[in-house]
Amino acid sequence: MLAGLAAGALALFPAAGMGASAGSPPASASGDGWRLGVAEVPAPQAPGAKVRTPVRIEVLAGQLGEGGAPLQAVAAGQAAQQLAEDALDAWVGVWPEESASLPAGVRAVALGWSAAPMAIMRTDTDIHAWSDLSGRTVCLSADGRSGGELAARFGAIEQIYASATDALLALRIGQCDAAVQDEDFLRQLLTFPEWKKFSAQLAPYRTQKLTRLLRDDLPASLKAAVRRATSQERLRELARQQARDIAFEVYLDQTVPDCH
To answer: Gene3D superfamilies annotated for this entry (predicted)?
Structure first.
C-alpha cells in the first residue's frame, strides 16, 4: 500500500525541481541580467538541508526569470527611489498605497496576483470566520506576509515555521488550527486531491496585490525580459509548479518517516 502511495505521489509530482533551483542563485547572477528588488531575499540553502521552495512568488520570478535576475533585498518604501537612482532595474512586491507618488522615470503596474491573506483548515473545523481565530493556533512561514497581523487583529496564536512546507505540514499533523498564506498560492495548492481534507477556507479579509515597479530607461530587450518574467501568465505558471513542489515536500516529510 505504501509503495502504491509513493508511486501515486510521484505521478502527481514528477519532480520537485523548482525547490532545488529556487534555493540557489540564478545561473546568470553575475550581473549580466536585470537586477530585481524584492522585500526579502531567502538565505542560501545549507548543504544537505531539506529542499524548501520559497512561498513568495516574486522570489521565484526572479530566480527563474529569463536572463537571470540577481535578487536584492529592498524594502517597499525604498524601492522607487532605488530605481530612480539606477540601483535596481525592477522591483516586485506588495507596494504600499501611500507610496503612490513615483519619481520621474519609474512606472508601477499591478500584476494581478493576490497576495491577500487566506486561511485553510481541516474540513471538520469549527472556525468559520476570522474572528474565530481568537486563542487558536495559526501556522505561518517566516517568508510569508502575515506575521504579527493575525495576532494583533484577531488574537490568534501565531506559530512561525522556517518555510511554507513546514507550516503546512504542521497543519496536516494537527499542530495548528489553520494555516495562512497568499490567496493565489493556496488556491493552487487546493487543486491537489490530497488537500481535499484541508480545503475549508477563510476568504481574505482585505485585498493585497503584487505590483511591479520598472525603470522607463531600461533597454528594450531588458524591459521585455522583465515583463515576460513577471507577467500574469508567467506567475500562474510558476504558481502551479510552486504548489506542486511544496505539496511534494510536505508529502515527503509526512509520509516517508511513516514507512520505517
So the answer is: Periplasmic binding protein-like II
What is the per-residue pLDDT across 135-152, written as a single tens digit (0 to 9) for each?
999 999 999 999 999 999
φ and ψ of 16, to 5 deg: -105, 45
Exposure string over 60-93, b if 16+ CB within 10 A, otherwise e: bbbbbbbbbbbbbebebeebbebbbeeebbbbbb
Cα dihedral across residues 56, 75, 222, 97: positive or negative: positive
Q: Does the structure show a pLDDT above 70 at 206?
A: yes
Q: What is the pLDDT of residue 17?
A: 46
In terms of residue numbers, what domain contains 198?
A: 117-202
pTM of the model: 0.83
Dump the DSSP string for 86-146: TS-SEEEE---GGG----TTEEEEEEEEE--EEEEE-TT-S--SGGGGTT-EEEEETTSS-
31 C-beta neighbours (distance < 10 Å), count: 9
| Separation of alpha carbons 202 and 200, rounded Å | 7
The full DSSP string for 185-250 is HHHHHTTSGGGGGG-EEE--SS--EEEEEEETTS-HHHHHHHHHHTSHHHHHHHHHHHHHHHHHHH
CATH code (residue 197): 3.40.190.10
The answer to whether residue 19 scores a pLDDT higher than 90 is: no
Q: Are residues 110 and 215 in the same domain?
A: yes
